[in-house]
Amino acid sequence: MPSVSSINGSLEITVILERAILAINGVTLKTRVFNQTIPGPTIRVRPGDEMKIRFQNLLVDQGSAYVHNQFSAADESNLHFHGLHVSGELPSDDSMVPVLPGEERVYMTLLPQDHMPGTHWLHPHRHGSTALQLAGGAAAALIVEDAPGTLPAQVEGAPEVILVVMQIDLETTARIASRARDSWFSSSGGRLTTLVNGEVAPTIGVRGGEWTRFRIVYAGWLAEVLNFDISGCEKALLAARMLEAKDGIYIRDFPRMLSGYAPIPVGGRADLMVRCMAPHTEYQVTWGAERIATVSTGELIPSSLDLEAWSPRYPAYLEDLQTTETSPDCSCVTELEGRTVNGHLFEEDFILHESYLGAVVERAITARSHPYHQHVYPFQLMSGFENNDRRDNDNRNNNNNIGTSAGNYDLPGDWHDTIEGQGVVRYKPAAFTGKVMLHCHRLDHEDEGMMSIELVKDSGPCVCRSPSLLPTWAIIIIVVVLLLVLGPIIILSYHRWRRLAAPVETRCFYFLRVQRHFWEQIPVIL
Fold this sequence. Notes:
This protein is α+β, with helices and mostly antiparallel strands. It has helices at residues 130-135, 153-156, 170-179, 388-391, 443-447, 472-499, 504-525, and strands at 3-5, 10-24, 27-34, 42-45, 50-57, 80-82, 104-110, 118-123, 140-144, 160-167, 186-188, 194-196, 203-208, 212-219, 226-230, 239-246, 249-250, 256-257, 262-264, 269-276, 282-287, 290-300, 331-337, 340-341, 353-356, 361-374, 379-384, 415-416, 418-427, 434-440, 451-457, 463-464.
């Protein structure tokens, strides 16, 4: 994959979103990509760098106008720096502002000096066309590199492999394109399910017995969990596989031995140290029951040592909050249900929760089958989010015959920006005021309104807006049913009441009986 690195504290790159016709494993794909490649060029920066990305939207305007909370705006776009701890306001990572066809925007982002090194990615985030554009392959890895001498020697000297794993569903994408009035996206010649670095089941060369750092970017957009495994490269049998970092943040208890596959949520990342001992051997890289790549070992190097224990230095925005009290009124509930967040469809002027710089914020999140992603500020797991919450959310599991999930993949104290399941998290806004976008990273849901905004202010108080008793869509359905089913009863009853040749008192008594019958029917319908 092409790569661009910062020089002397500055990175400048032009990212072009444009139409492309690609031939992949016998399939002809008419799609939208970055710089004519799937994935786009890897961007490598360091903490403290100034990142200047000139984003050019060279898509052809088909007249697919934006329609709120619907698949639309097929040729409008923008960029989101998924995982970076940077401002969510222009000229930085503001995903609310579209870049129209034929226009460009220069994103200027200054990475904090204490930004944690890690694995991230970028992708379009125009509400209405996010799913369509990412589903077609518009994504790229974004690496924040470690300063020399800050990692254990075994990790710093290890060869690196980047795997951008893309979830492909041509039929679903075609349906979304049709609803967005997009006539460009199409495919012919077969089907695709997964791309790894733009290829179908590529072979990755490593040396036998050598530790290799795998940076895994799950550029997903539907509900499937990436149950990632390398068969035979486990424990001490032939090899060892160690968890190093998740969502671009190092774990505290490195090396953490994984006893099974890694259940990476949609949009998540994982850094794994992998050692496959046998020379001249092929190991299957699997997603559930599907082989998505092959690791092929070459000559055996002299036996490498087991990884030594190491704990990184954490910046202020990743302060350990497990024993810290939550700030007053800063414990809020966030529920992703249907297509809503706390019962609300996305509105640009609706603020879900409010916090302030220096507050310790807690969120009780319910996001089953809805991968929760938060911009700007990563969050620390306090409780919940058991791996089994995600196990069955994988269409490639071959009747659950996919081995065992690593029960220690998600532990209290770990940091994420993307998670699925139910549990409690905390974070501490420390640098950036303004909006913090949050949404379901099943991006067809996000395009249809499953997104909201938190607001970080200079000072308090916190404000929580609890979930509605019923989501907006449910209330609308109930009202429509009541009008259609019970409305005629009221009208007929009223006309019969007027025709009754009885005293007014009798007619009123009759009408009240009808009304009581009306209200008795409501619980039956609900």
